[in-house]
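hey m, so remember when u said the tokens were messed up on ur end? i reran from scratch. heres the input so u can diff it against urs
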Amino acid sequence: GGQLVMLRKAQEFFQTCDAEGKGFIARKDMQRLHKELPLSLEELEDVFDALDADGNGYLTPQEFTTGFSHFFFSQN
């Protein structure tokens, strides 16, 4: 139920961020969610930092989806 919806949303957000189809999201790509989410650019940077568990400066689809689900469920 909710988890499937969340996974779809995470994949949508990933594709929004990765408009060029690189297969990963860089910090600046995260700013594309500014129109989609009620978060400031600073908050989006914080989300990026939280999702970038290995600190390499980019998010794979797996990192993004896993992190997004933790983030999503901790907000609800």
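this time it looks ok to me. The chain has a mean pLDDT of 89. if urs says something different then somethings off w ur setup not the seq
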